[in-house]
Amino acid sequence: MKILGISLGTKNGNNDTMCRVALEAAKEKGAEIEFIHLFDWDIRPCTGCVACSRALVTGKGMVCSQKDDFKALYEKMVDADGVLFVDPIFESGCTGLFHTLMDRMGPGHDTGLMLGCCEKMKEQGKEPLDMKYFKQKAISFVGIGGSDWAVRVETDHAMLAMSPGWKVVDNDYFSWSKDVIMQDDKVERMREIARNLVDAAQDIADRHLMIFSPENDKLDYWKGKKGACPHCHGNNFYIHPGTDVAECELCGLKGKLVLDGDVMTFKFDPATEFHAHDILSGKKLHGEDIFENEGRLMGLSKDEEFKARKAHYTAVAEPIPSPSKAN
């Protein structure tokens, strides 16, 4: 049993410390532990070049145009049984570095697209992607903030688990935590989060659970507080203007927010649950859409009207050169 802790804070700051608190508790439960201070790694922003999605759509495999440490980080996560992220809270949400990780996970590591790629590779007589990329995984998130601006961070963090379809066990945040190491209740909560992660990871390993296992979509390892969305436990919703339709910003299900006694809850038609972004049925639907759209875009590169429009707007304005790169 291997638990990987990843901290996105300052060197030996609160995030590193609380991540190590959790790792110590995981080790006490018999887990092998590894720790990454992510600022030590070279993680570059996604450029939106779509090389990853096009490579999957065409059966070329997993490709990224960026040559940095992200592939090594992804392999570390894949090889672990459970992953814990501890991230500072910036302006109520996650850090820019965490957003970069979300972007880099994106379509290139979406298991729905990856399964479609495997089918393409088989059709082309190639060996499909390694099945290790489809192993289910337990993942937890903790945001640590210095004030009470924190309520967006849960959704930001849980989005990272969407592309691979990993099971979120805990997703918590600590407000007013400049001195968190001295707050015994939060230290104990970190230890509890670690124990929950080990237990979930062990159960997943014992079941040999894969993303495409028949029972995968129905298994819920959630140990946090019950969220308004009964499917993903999300608490952030987009209200479509001029309607009473609410959309869970995490799993993407649409329904209505209703007052059930004194509690606001999210209600959706159970017949639509298969659309949820975090389960294989929803990921397959999303993958099919990506395959169709990428195929259409690749065809456009030969279209004369498309090329003329691109040329016209490219000529409208030249980008300003980078001052730091001018010399």
From TrEMBL:
Keyword Flavoprotein attached: yes
Start and end residues of each NADPH-dependent FMN reductase-like domain: 1-178
SUPFAM superfamilies in UniProt: Flavoproteins
Identification of the protein by name: Flavodoxin family protein
Keywords of the record: Flavoprotein, FMN
Taxonomic lineage: Bacteria, Bacillati, Bacillota, Clostridia, Peptostreptococcales
GO molecular-function term, one example from the UniProt record: oxidoreductase activity
